[in-house]
Every structure is written in C-alpha cells, then in structure tokens.
Amino acid sequence: MDDKRAEALARLGVHSVGDLVRHYPFRYLDLTATADMRTVQAGSQATVVGRVHDITVKQPRPRLSITEIALVDGTGALIGVWFNQPYMATRFRVGERVAFAGQVVFEYGLKQMRAPFVERLPEEDAGPSIACVLPVHGATEGLSTNWIRRLVAIALEDAGDVPDFLPSALRVRRGLVGLSDALRAVHFPVSSDDAERARRRLAYDELLTIQLAMALRRHAVVDALPGHAHVVDGSSMKALPTALPFGLTPDQETAIGEIVADMRAPRPMNRMLLGDVGTGKTVVAAHALAACADSGTQAAMMAPTEVLAGQYVRALGPLLDALGISWALLTGSTKAKERSRILAGLADGGITVAFGTHALIQEDVLYARLSLAIVDEQHRFGVEQRLALRNKGEALDMLVMTATPIPRSLALTVYGDLETSYLRERPGGRGADHVSTRIVSKGGRPDAYQAVRDAVARGERAYIVCALVDESDATEARAATAEARRLQRQVFPELKVGLLTGQMTAADKHEVMGRFRSGEVDVLVATTVIEVGVDVPEATVMIVEDSERFGLAQLHQLRGRVGRGERPGEVLLFADPRTDDGRARMAAIVGTNDGFELAEYDLELRGEGDVLGARQSGLPGLRIASLSRDGDLLSIAREDARALVSSDPQLVLAEHVPLREELQERLAESWEWVSAG
Ligand code: ADP
Ligand code: MG
Question: Which residues surround ligand 1 with Cβ inside 6 Å?
Fold first, then answer.
C-alpha cells in the first residue's frame, strides 16, 4: 500500500487489520428496499435507483457552483444537488446506473436530495454476486468508499475465524450471534435484518465493556475496603423531622432511605442523587450530615461556587444549629484568621460539618474523622478534585448531587459505578405548571418588559439573562454591563437594575445578590452565572435574550431560578429560531417542565458523542451502540456485567479469561481507573 493511502487510513483511525475490521459502515444502501421516484415522500429518508439522465453545473455567483445530477427510474425523476462540489459532475456518465440515498426534499416542483450519498451500481445482469445491501464505510480524501470496502473484505478474509470472547452460555442466553458472523454481517449483510443482528451483537459488546468497567470499579471502591458503618438512628437523625418546617415528599423519603441504608452498611457509599432544581436535594443531604454527627465523624459538603456554598449555609446552618451540630464555611475568600480557626477545628474534630468550595480540599486542610463527602454539581469538578476529596478520609461515603438532568440510559453508562436516587416531584405544591414558559418574538419585547414591571409592582423580582457571547467571559460581561445600563436608563428608569457577571469578584457578587434578595434591586441583569443554585423565592419573572443560543439543559437550569417560592414563575424566551432543529428545541422547552424528559430529547437530537466524554474517564466511546436506541441492550449488559463481576470479581475463571483479555485491550489506559477505585 502506498504512503498516501496509509496516511488517509490513519486519518480514519485505521492503523491495523483489527482497526479495519472495526471500521463499521455508518449506513447501508438497502437495494432490496428502494423507493419509486414517483411515490417517495418529501421529508423521508430513502434510497432510489435510476439511470443518470442529465448532468449540469451552474455558476449563479462567482463563488457558488451548483451541480445537478438527474436520475430517472421509469416512474419519475429525482435530482441530486451539490453546492461547490463541481467534481461530482465528472464522477458519473449519462446512462449509468446509480443509487442515491438521503433525505428527499421538494423544491421548485421537483424532488431533490441535497448531497445524497451516491453509489455507482453494476448493470443488473452482471451476475448473482452482487450484494443487495451495500455497506457504506466512512471514506476520506484520497480513499474512495469502494476501495475501503474492498480493503475491509480482504481484512475480514485475513482475520479468518475470530475466536469469540463472550462466554457461550451468555451469548446463547441473550440470543446474540457469534463474533465472526457479526463481523462479516456488519460489513457485508445479506439483508437489513442480518445487518441489524450483527449490529446488536457488536453494540452489546461495547455496552458490556463499559458496564464491566463500571462493575469492576464499583467492586474495587465498594467491596475492597471496609467502610464506615454509620449510626443512622441517633438523636440528630430523630430530631431532624421536627426541626424541619415542612414534611418530606415521598421521593425525598425514598432517597433518604436509600442513603441511610448505604451509610449504615460497613462499605463505602457510592451514590448519586439526581433531581431537577427545586426538587429539594439539600434537605436530603441534611440527613446524611445528621448521621455523621450521630456517628461522631465529620462530613464535607463541596460546591463549585461560593454562591452555592453560601446557600448551603443559609439553608442548613440554622437547621444544624437547632440540632446542636457544629459547622463551618470555608471558601477562597475566608479570612486568614478565620481559616486557621476552621482548620484547627477540622483537624481536632471540633467541627462536624464543613461547607465550602475547592478550599475544602487544599493540601493543608486535614480532617480528624471525615466519613462522608457530598459533592454538588459534580460534573463541574475534575477527576483529580474528586480524588483529592476522597483522599481526605478513609473509605469515605460519597454522595454526589446533580441538577443536570441526565437521561437514565446515560447515567447508567457514564455513572454506572454509582447507585442512583431520583427526585422527580417538586415539593410545596409547586407542580409542573408552577413555572410557565413562552417564546417571545421581536414584537413582544414591550409586553415582556411590562411583565417585569407588573411583577415588581406585586413585590416580586425579575431576572434578565443576557445572550451567550461566543468570545470570552470578559466580552460577555461587557455585553451584560451595557445591557444593564440600557435597561436602567431607557426601559426601567423607575426601577432599580442590578448586574451579576462571572467577572465580578466574589464580594461584589455576594453584595448584589444580597440586594436582590432583600428587594433593594428589582431587576437583576445576569450572564449565565445564575445558572447554578441561586435561590431567591421572590424572583418570578425571567427573560432570556437570544435563547436559541442556549442548550436545552442550560435553559432548563436557568428557568429553575424562578418560581422557587409560593408564587408561580413566568419565563419569557426571546427567540427567533430559523432552523427546524431550533424550532423543535424551542417547542420542547415550552412543551415540558420535566428536565429528564428534555434530556432524553436532547440525547435523541444530538446523540451521545460529546456527552459521553463529559466524565473524562477515558472510557472507550460508542462506535455502534446508541444509548437512545439501545436502552434494552444497555439494561441487559448492565445486568450481565454485575452478575459476572459478583461471581468472578477478577474474571479468572477459564470461561472468563478471553473476556478479561478483550476488556483490558479495549479499556487500555482506563484499565487503571477501573481497577484502582
Ligand atoms: P435543589 O437543591 O434540589 O434545587 P432545594 O434543596 O434548594 O432544591 O429546595 C428547593 C426549595 O424547596 C427550598 O426552598 C426548600 O426549603 C424547599 N423544600 C425542600 N423540600 C421541601 C418539602 N418537602 N416541602 C416543602 N418545601 C421543601
Ligand atoms: Mg441545591
């Protein structure tokens, strides 16, 4: 093979025969299921086969060329359209038999496909060897699809019969095809069903790999060390319900039950509490803190920002005081003298609960008997930071809390080593319709500002969230500053407008939040720094500028800032979505208040590609499995992985050895993460 081609293959991530065998087709052209050009529906994904009738290249503007290839199939015609790809015109000859695959659009009275996938087909009478389902492998410059297809065929032949690493009992029980068959059929299926059976087997392998990694890691973390067996029926725990001004929701009760059971057991807790903003995670965490107090140990509760850490203190400080539990707040802005007092208290055990930010895991912060770490919004912390926290005690119980609504399938994958507890309902009679969301187009601006004035007249307050700016934080802060000035002078001269940006010092942020909370500031203009955790019950109206620039999850988090009190919230999204995708996303955010539902939707829309990377654990990505499509396979793989690890934690039984070897190879660098805990 020449260097150019080897280079091109390397660009596709193909360095070996093995890589080639795993270079799965990204789609198939099913020539047994082609559509007639006359009846094929606009908007549908289809494959059509016909003869090239006409090839034209137009140049309407100096920098724009349009190539059109018209196909006819005896029922009608369909035109493939390419922008600025004039070479497409040279790839085909009139009269040739060609397949197009792609989305059908209807324009200028004609059926078209924009840049469809194309395949030149042999003549129909060329013999029986022609596959009816053509694989389409990812190609790159200098490597045609055809060439790659031939290369894959040779590689498969070379590889011969690949030994199957899956224990055969498992394979049979799950009705999965053998590895050799799967590899052959994924590349060269005889039918779409054949391709799907192959895909399932290979997808199962990917999901099982990740689930085994998670199960092994969980085993290393949870079972390797004897953890703290906390006292969970002590005096603080008993007094807690009476110290609360409200009764718990059933979801809270369940989550507390799960946490308490973990804490009582003499092995480390490894649990994640998932709940949308306002579902009441803080008071659930309070129960874990109380168990520490009753056990004579210590707890650290770490937040990603000072604002959030301050909120723990406001929410939980008085409660802990009432229970006689000592606590402290340690952040980057804690004064030196206060800091050394707190460090002494943590080191001698005089302080039971430490709230704070990263300051809690500085090297010189030592804990006498730390037995519980609670981490909020944990995706904002890096792996090292979580590890640093873990290392502040021995075999700690870990509770991670997140308001980022992760779809269940993703949680089971990315956080598969954690147990999960969910809070779905909102407490205090604030049901799903407590916060309403509307899209406002340009003309609606005066009405939206009127909604702000009305709210303030009722003694309530409003947020105005500035548009995301692509450039730096500094640019964003400047834009927000200018907007705040404009609003104060031109729109709300009679109200008090405040400003909150990520660029401000902690002290300034704290100050403006205080004035907003007290009502001295009526309207708070903010960048997305208010996204996490800000809790002002009187805030009822939120305006978001340019909202189509925000992700769904982010918009959802933002709107969680209003309607946190008794009064209902109103969210006005300025938006002018111009794409189908943008309109669909806006419809989704208006259509549901359930963060998990939105997250599932986001997963379908965007795929899991970048989301999987979120944990930065170096886990292998999914090449063929899809979390939104393969939910059933995921549950099966998880169940199988846990059963395998509990029956044979080192995977040393003869029937598991090939599986372990495969796993080590697939996990490569992450093997250490898996076995280290
Ligand atoms: P989260 O951290 O999950 O966003 P919080 O813990 O801040 O939510 O709780 C949101 C609000 O709901 C707080 O004001 C809290 O006091 C209140 N709250 C929590 N649990 C209940 C409950 N069971 N009944 C009534 N109000 C509750
Ligand atoms: Mg919270």
Answer: 246, 248-249, 252, 275, 277-283, 403, 427-428, 535
